[in-house]
Write a structure and sequence with these properties.
By secondary structure, the protein is mainly alpha-helical. Helices cover 73% and strands 6% of the residues. The radius of gyration is 28 Å and the shape is elongated.
């Protein structure tokens, strides 16, 4: 008799009352694990085999690229809104995928839906290909009979993220190019130009200017220990990334990033809160109970310090507290957030209030990013140009000192 091998899966889920849970479940495969969770009355937000690397939303061989995920939700929303049944709509979307791996993944979702699974369960069964808010909002739409509206909210979320990402990439391309070219010029000077001048000055008994001596010393240091310094820097980066994977260290580093980096911390916090409030608004508009919506929205916050604050807010709300008071008790949340939430609660328009707040945060984030990026190029040009100009000035000063000796 053959015994089927069982695998341990780690999962994150919410129940009908909004109680978040995570744990380990043993099943033959991911589909069986999702089925077990659904039988327990849990909506899986993420599930993956222990020891497996998390699938990245940016897309791998077995996942969807961001553009493909956006195309999936946008096309599916249009088709369902037009009256297409879910299963044939998924078939049409799968046929439109350019990459075979993407088409196969959508085809697997379609097969699970055809077998009787909900769309949320089919999405959760794909590992980390879909983020928690994606699965949670789809589950809410299915439960409330408003799947088309839920998919429309998801399409808006994905489009906003794609626009911001493209805007950031476009704005950083030119400064990055300037930086790379300048660093290449500095490397050429340190590796080739400065050694030539060292030979020139070595045969002279003239006392070199302090700036010239400093530049030659730095060039000699880079020439001798440059590869070692690069290797040490690479090891330091790897050690930092490894430390960032430790939960306690990551929590400390994320908190420090928010409170100790000034404008950068505010920009990061606003970006995370904009995603949190927009996701929460979309979930509440789709009919999700507040406690469940808070659990799902908190799962999409990448910063561990803010995610912890969001989870404490969820616990306080489940305990009977108003959302505005729970938010006010968290120092990492800005005070204006709690004030706007209090106003929205008084007027019984919490979803719309959250949506308006997310738009305000996104607009301020965009303005702050524009101001920062408008300063990056001139500052980078001045700093790096000053470094190159300083090196040339020091070398010229050294040559002039040789001429003084000759005279």
């Amino acid at each position: 008799m053959t015994t089927m091998a069982m695998t341990n899966f780690t999962y994150r889920s919410v129940d009908a009352n909004g109680r978040a849970s995570r744990g380990t479940i043993e099943a033959a495969d991911r589909r069986a694990a999702v089925d077990q969770l659904m039988q327990r009355g849990l909506t899986p937000l993420s599930i993956k085999a222990e020891g497996a690397r998390r699938a990245v939303g940016g897309g791998g061989a077995k996942g969807l690229k961001r553009a493909e995920r956006l195309s999936l939700v946008r096309d599916l929303a249009n088709l369902v809104s037009a009256g297409f049944a879910l299963e044939p709509a998924l078939g049409l979307v799968a046929d439109q995928m350019q990459r075979p791996a993407a088409g196969a993944l959508v085809g697997e979702i379609r097969a699970r839906v055809r077998a009787g699974d909900s769309l949320a369960a089919a999405l959760a069964a794909q590992g980390g290909a879909f983020p928690p808010e994606f699965v949670g909002l789809v589950a809410a739409g299915e439960q409330g009979g408003s799947l088309a509206a839920a998919l429309g909210h998801l399409a808006s979320l994905e489009e906003d993220r794609a626009q911001f990402r493209q805007r950031l990439i476009s704005a950083m391309t030119y400064p990055a190019l300037i930086g790379l070219l300048t660093l290449a010029a500095l490397a050429l000077m340190a590796g080739y130009v400065l050694p030539q001048f060292q030979d020139l000055f070595a045969g002279s008994k003239a006392k070199l200017p302090a700036a010239t001596a400093a530049v030659l010393a730095i060039g000699d240091l880079l020439g001798r220990f440059g590869p070692g310094l690069l290797a040490g820097g690479a090891l330091a980066v790897l050690a930092t990334l490894r430390a960032y994977r430790q939960p306690e260290l990551r929590l400390r580093m994320d908190r420090m990033l928010l409170v100790a980096t000034g404008p950068l911390g505010r920009l990061i916090g606003d970006a995370q809160l904009a995603l949190y409030t927009r996701t929460l608004a979309s979930l509440l508009s789709g009919g999700v109970p507040l406690a469940s919506a808070l659990a799902t929205a908190g799962g999409c916050v990448a910063n561990r310090a803010l995610a912890g604050a969001a989870d404490r807010v969820r616990v306080a709300v489940r305990g009977g507290s108003d959302l505005s008071r729970a938010v006010q008790a968290e120092p990492l949340f800005p005070r204006r957030l709690s004030r706007m939430l209090a106003m929205a609660e008084q007027t019984a328009s919490l979803p719309q209030g959250l949506l308006d707040l997310s738009k305000v945060l996104e607009r301020e984030r965009g303005l702050a990013l524009d101001r920062a990026l408008s300063l990056v190029t001139p500052v980078l040009t001045l700093v790096l140009g000053g470094m190159v100009g300083g090196i040339f000035a020091a070398l010229i000063a050294g040559i002039l000192s040789l001429n003084d000796i000759a005279l």
